[in-house]
Every structure is written in structure tokens, then in C-alpha cells.
Structure to design on (440 residues):
């Protein structure tokens, strides 16, 4: 077999065999296939796409390139959740404790921030003493004891994806739907859960800018999950505006605590309840109606919040912060951000909002950057609100006063004001199952 022929086949739009796909991916991971040949194959895939079969082979091969977590030591049905990335996306932090409080099992391995999108692990580490680097034995023990553990993804999960992602990043092949689907699902298959709920974000702060593309990506990921024997559902959510009102690290933990108490901003609260319900249905805890009632109950009776406090304590964190979030340190410096003109906020570019949070210190500008746990933005008025010129619409936070000015002028570019009220934004657009799409 020759890599040259594999590239040539794909360039012509022909379907690759399982053996050819394994040859290319394994050869690349081992270093036998050079970057320039893999780059050519990636670009051919970018233009010619992949069939569902090719995609399943590629994803399984990428998953098997590193550790395949075996969660069989954890009792019950393990349900994973994954987001394709967003701004202000703290959903896992609330959904996982809600599901566990309802009797579900969540063995969750999360990532750090990537580009302008925040990461669950960075957010969790803003809770004093919270540990996310936990070995497998202890991880299983915690899930068996509490129904939940939230840890960082091990370094050896899908190394093929790490190598391919780095190459895609410099060869203009990141925004390929099959390549995104394989990248995300390789990590999900390696993470070992029985069932998967995917949050496919759509809009200015997401990889997928249109609902049509998001549906295609969702269908591909659902097909991979189902093909690999893991029941999978994807939910399309709005990422045209930041989710909730907080973007940062400790301020997002505070907002997740509000969701666990039923007091979060409406869009975020709705998304948490829908995801938790869907995970419980997949975990066979009842019908959709029964699972939704369970979700409401654990929020109302405080057991969802208690579950979050319990997992924080078990992983070394100071649980008192969960019950008294006013203890979280505030940023040393704050700056009010005011509306430039009177009118409706017609749109807010969520990617610019996310990049502003990175400038403030909430994310990494270089691999060596350290995260400022207190940095971020709170948006008091979002798309659709009427605002007066000079009205405070957001507050920027940072430990570095110099960053506030840069960030504020960058954030100006995110807003469009106008005299016509924009259409009301939906939090959730659609659900994608193996046999079809339901638009909401
Ligand atoms: N997230 C991933 O893990 N991979 C992609 O390719 C895009 C988003």
C-alpha cells in the first residue's frame, strides 16, 4: 500500500477502504508518513468529503491510537456530554451534578480552553484546591460513590487527533465537517461512556455558523456514535450570543451554581434542563416527562447543589465556595462597558466576546499563559435588548488594569445597534437522532 495512491483515490472522490484509512492514520502517528502527505490527504478530504463508513473507520482508528478508557468498573449506564465549543459555555458544570443527583452516572473527562472558547477544567480549577488530575482508580471510586467525577482528559486520549489537529490548524483544514466530526468523536469513543449527548453549537461563537451545517455535523457525529455501538443524540444550541451572562472562570462557576438552584439566566437554565433530561432518558431513568420532573425536583430540593458540593469536596476542593459563592475573589480591576448608541442590540458577535475574555486574562494567548481566574465579562444586556446611549451593558474584569482598555476597545466591534427589534433568539434549535431531525 502507498500513501500516494490513497491521496490520489481521495482526490478523485473515491471511497477509501478500512485498510487504507488505518494505513494512513497509523502511519502518520508512527511518523512513517510525513506531514506533507497527510496534509494532502486532509485537503482532499476537505474537498471530497467522506462516507459514513470511511468516517467511522477513521474515527475508530484515531480513538484506538491511545488509551481506550474501560468504564466497566463503574456500575450503571454511563452517559457522556460534549460541546463543540462556545463562549460562556459552563453547561457541564451544572448538568453533570443534576444528572448525578437524579441517579445517573457521569464519568466526565473535560478539556481546557481552546482559542476563544473556555474549558471546563480551567473553570473547575478556579475553585480553591479543586483537583482535576486524578488517576483512573480514584476516578472510578468517585463515580461509584457519588455518580459523578469531573476530571481532565488524560494526555494519551486519541493522540492521533492531537497530531492531526495541529496539522489541520496550519493547513487551513480545521473547518471540514468530517474532520471535526472524527476529531470530536475519536475522543468520545476513547473516553468510554455507553451513551453520548452532543451539544452542537451554532452561530458567531461556534465552528458551525449556520443551522444547515450544524445539522450535517450533528448527523455525522450521531452516525459515528451509533456505528460504534454508542447511542448518541445531538442538540443544536444557539451560540450567536454568549451563553448566560458570564464569560470567564470563577464567574462562570458562580453562574453554574445559580443553574443548580434554578436561578440562572433563562437561556442557560433552559439548556441545562434539556441536556440533563436527555442524558437521563439515555441513562434509562424514565420517560422524557419523568426525567424532566426529576431534574426540576433535584434543583428545587437542593440535592443538585449538594451533589456539586460533594464532588468538589471529594476532589479536594473547598465546598464552602459552592454554598457561599460570594467568597470567590473578585478581580482587582473592573471597567463598565457602555452602549455607544440608543437602540436595540441587533447582534453581538460571540467570538469577539470570547476573544475579549481572553485579552482580559480568562484564556491563554500563548501555551505558557496562566489563567486569571477572576478575569472575564458580565453582559447585562444581550441581543434583543433596548439600550440607551451611555447605559452600562457589560462589566469587564481583570487583575491587570492595562488589559481593561484594550479589551474594551476590542469588544466595541462585537455590537451592532439598530432601531428594529431583532427576532427573539431561541436557545435550542433542533435535536438530531439516528433516524431524523426534530426542529424545535
Ligand atoms: N473540537 C475538536 O475537538 N476538534 C475539532 O476539530 C473542532 C472542535
Amino acid at each position: 500500500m502507498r500513501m500516494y495512491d490513497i491521496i490520489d483515490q481521495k482526490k478523485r472522490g473515491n471511497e477509501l477502504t478500512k485498510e487504507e484509512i488505518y494505513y494512513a492514520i497509523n502511519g502518520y502517528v508512527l511518523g512513517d508518513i510525513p506531514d506533507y502527505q497527510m496534509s494532502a490527504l486532509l485537503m482532499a478530504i476537505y474537498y471530497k468529503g467522506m462516507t459514513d463508513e470511511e468516517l467511522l473507520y477513521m474515527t475508530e482508528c484515531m480513538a484506538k491510537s491511545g488509551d481506550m478508557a474501560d468504564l466497566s468498573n463503574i456500575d450503571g449506564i454511563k452517559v457522556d456530554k460534549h460541546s463543540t465549543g462556545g463562549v460562556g459555555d459552563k453547561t457541564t458544570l451544572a448538568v453533570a451534578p443534576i444528572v448525578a443527583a437524579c441517579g445517573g452516572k457521569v464519568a466526565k473527562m473535560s478539556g481546557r480552553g481552546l482559542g476563544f472558547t473556555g474549558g471546563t477544567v480551567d473553570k473547575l480549577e478556579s475553585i480553591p484546591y479543586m483537583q482535576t488530575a486524578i488517576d483512573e482508580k480514584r476516578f472510578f471510586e468517585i463515580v461509584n460513590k457519588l455518580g459523578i467525577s469531573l476530571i481532565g482528559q488524560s494526555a494519551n486520549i486519541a493522540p492521533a487527533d492531537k497530531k492531526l489537529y495541529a496539522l489541520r490548524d496550519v493547513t487551513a483544514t480545521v473547518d471540514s465537517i468530517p474532520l471535526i466530526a472524527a476529531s470530536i468523536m475519536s475522543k468520545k469513543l476513547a473516553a468510554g461512556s455507553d451513551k453520548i449527548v452532543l451539544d452542537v453549537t451554532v452561530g458567531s461563537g461556534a465552528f458551525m455558523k449556520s443551522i444547515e451545517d450544524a445539522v450535517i455535523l450533528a448527523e455525522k457525529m450521531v452516525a459515528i456514535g451509533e456505528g460504534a455501538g454508542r447511542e448518541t443524540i445531538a442538540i443544536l444550541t444557539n451560540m450567536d450570543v454568549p451563553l448566560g451572562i458570564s464569560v470567564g472562570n470563577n464567574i462562570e462557576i458562580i453562574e453554574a451554581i445559580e443553574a443548580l438552584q434554578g436561578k440562572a439566566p433563562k437561556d442557560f437554565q433552559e439548556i441545562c434542563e434539556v441536556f440533563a433530561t436527555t442524558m437521563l432518558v439515555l441513562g434509562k431513568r424514565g420517560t422524557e416527562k419523568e426525567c424532566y420532573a426529576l431534574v426540576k425536583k433535584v434543583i428545587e430540593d437542593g440535592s443538585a447543589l449538594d451533589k456539586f458540593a460533594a464532588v468538589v469536596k471529594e476532589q479536594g476542593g473547598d465546598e464552602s465556595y459552592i454554598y457561599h459563592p460570594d467568597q470567590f475573589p473578585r478581580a482587582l480591576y473592573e471597567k463598565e462597558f457602555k452602549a455607544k448608541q440608543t437602540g436595540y442590540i441587533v447582534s453581538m458577535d460571540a467570538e469577539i466576546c470570547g476573544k475579549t475574555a481572553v485579552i482580559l486574562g480568562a484564556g491563554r494567548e500563548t501555551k505558557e499563559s496562566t489563567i486569571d481566574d477572576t478575569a472575564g465579562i458580565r453582559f447585562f444586556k444581550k441581543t434583543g435588548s433596548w439600550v440607551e446611549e451611555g447605559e452600562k451593558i457589560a462589566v469587564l474584569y481583570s487583575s491587570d488594569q492595562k488589559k481593561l482598555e484594550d479589551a474594551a476597545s476590542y469588544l466595541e466591534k462585537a455590537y451592532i445597534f439598530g432601531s428594529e427589534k431583532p427576532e427573539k433568539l431561541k436557545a435550542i434549535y433542533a435535536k438530531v437522532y439516528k433516524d431524523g431531525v426534530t426542529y424545535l
